[in-house]
C-alpha cells in the first residue's frame, strides 16, 4: 500500500471508465474537466495560471514537479512578469511525483499554492499511461478527486468541455488600461496571458484591454493604431459574437494580430474552419516552419483546436505550419495588415525564437 505524502488519497476518473488511484495533494475536493497533457519540463507556475487551461485537468509528463516552488508575484505597470494571470486556472493537476521546493526565490510549495487556491492535485500515478491513453483515444473528460472517495463520478460529467464558453470566467468585466509612451492598441481580452501583455508593453504600446464581448464599434471608439485578438479557453466555434467583432474590426483596415484563439477567430471571420484536434498541442518545444523562408523555429503551444491547410480562408495565406501534423500555425493577408499565430510568440515558458512576431506587428502599426 502506498503511503501518501500529504496523508490522503486521490483519484482520476476518465470518461472511458478508467479509474486511477494515487495520492492527493493541494486542496481537498472534486473537480471535472477535459483531461489534457503538456510535455513541458519547466514553467508550471506559468502553465497553471494560463487562462487557456480553464476547464481542463492538466497532466504534466515531467516526472518531478514542484522542485523550484512558487515565487512571489512581480508586477510592472499592472502586468505580471512571472505568472500568466492572477490565479490558478486549471481545474486540477496530475503529476508523477509532487516535490518540495529548493530555490532561493520560492515563497511556497506547489502543494501549499494549490491548497490556498482550492485546486486539487493527484500524484503517485503513472502519467505515461494516462498520456498514452489520451493520445490513443483522444482528449476526454475526467474527474479528479483529492482527499475524497470518488463515488459515481459520471454525475460530474453532465456537460462536455466543447459545450461551455469558458471565456465568461477569464475575460475582464470592464476595460483595463496599461499606459505607455507609444501608440495605442486595443487588446481583446478573452483570457490573455500576461506574457503577451508584457511583450506588447515592452515595445512601447499603450494597451487598452477590453472584454471579450466588446463590439467592433466599442473597440474603434478608442481610435486604436492596432488591434490584438488574444488567447483564451474553450471552443472557438461557440464564439460567434467574437467572430462578428473580428469581422467588423477588419473592415476598418487597421493592423490586426491574432494569437491562439485570436488566430482561430480571424480564420472563422474570413470564412475558414476550425476543428477539434485529437489531443492538441501543449508544450514548449513544438517546431513551426515559416513558409516565407523555410526556417524552422521552436515555439510554445497550448491549443486543442486547429486550422488545417484546407480550412485556411481564401483571402489568407499560410504563414507557419507544424511539420509533425501539418496544422497551420500562422496566417497573413497579402493585401491587408493582418497576421496571426496559433502558437505563443511570447513563449512564457519556453524559447524566445519567435518573439520577433511582435516586432513585425509593431512595424505594421507604425
UniProtKB/TrEMBL annotation:
SUPFAM superfamilies membership: Carbamoyl phosphate synthetase, small subunit N-terminal domain, Class I glutamine amidotransferase-like
Region spans: CPSase: 1-183
Molecular function GO labels: ATP binding; carbamoyl-phosphate synthase (glutamine-hydrolyzing) activity
InterPro entries for this protein: Anth_synth/Amidotransfase, CarbamoylP_synth_ssu, CarbamoylP_synth_ssu_N, CarbP_synth_ssu_N_sf, Class_I_gatase-like, CPSase_GATase1, GATASE
Residues binding L-glutamine, per UniProt: 52, 232, 234, 261, 264, 302, 304-305
GO process annotations (BP): 'de novo' pyrimidine nucleobase biosynthetic process; 'de novo' UMP biosynthetic process; glutamine metabolic process; L-arginine biosynthetic process
Signal peptide start and end residues: none
UniProt keyword NADP, yes or no: no
Pathway membership: Amino-acid biosynthesis; L-arginine biosynthesis; carbamoyl phosphate from bicarbonate: step 1/1; Pyrimidine metabolism; UMP biosynthesis via de novo pathway; (S)-dihydroorotate from bicarbonate: step 1/3
Keywords associated with the record: Amino-acid biosynthesis, Arginine biosynthesis, ATP-binding, Glutamine amidotransferase, Ligase, Nucleotide-binding, Pyrimidine biosynthesis
UniProt domain Carbamoyl-phosphate synthase small subunit N-terminal: residue ranges: 8-145
Catalytic activity: L-glutamine + H2O = L-glutamate + NH4(+); hydrogencarbonate + L-glutamine + 2 ATP + H2O = carbamoyl phosphate + L-glutamate + 2 ADP + phosphate + 2 H(+)
Active site: 260, 344, 346
Enzyme Commission number(s) from the entry: 6.3.5.5
Listed transmembrane segments: none
Functional note: Small subunit of the glutamine-dependent carbamoyl phosphate synthetase (CPSase). CPSase catalyzes the formation of carbamoyl phosphate from the ammonia moiety of glutamine, carbonate, and phosphate donated by ATP, constituting the first step of 2 biosynthetic pathways, one leading to arginine and/or urea and the other to pyrimidine nucleotides. The small subunit (glutamine amidotransferase) binds and cleaves glutamine to supply the large subunit with the substrate ammonia.
Homology family: Belongs to the CarA family.
Assembly: Composed of two chains; the small (or glutamine) chain promotes the hydrolysis of glutamine to ammonia, which is used by the large (or ammonia) chain to synthesize carbamoyl phosphate. Tetramer of heterodimers (alpha,beta)4.
Protein name: Carbamoyl phosphate synthase small chain
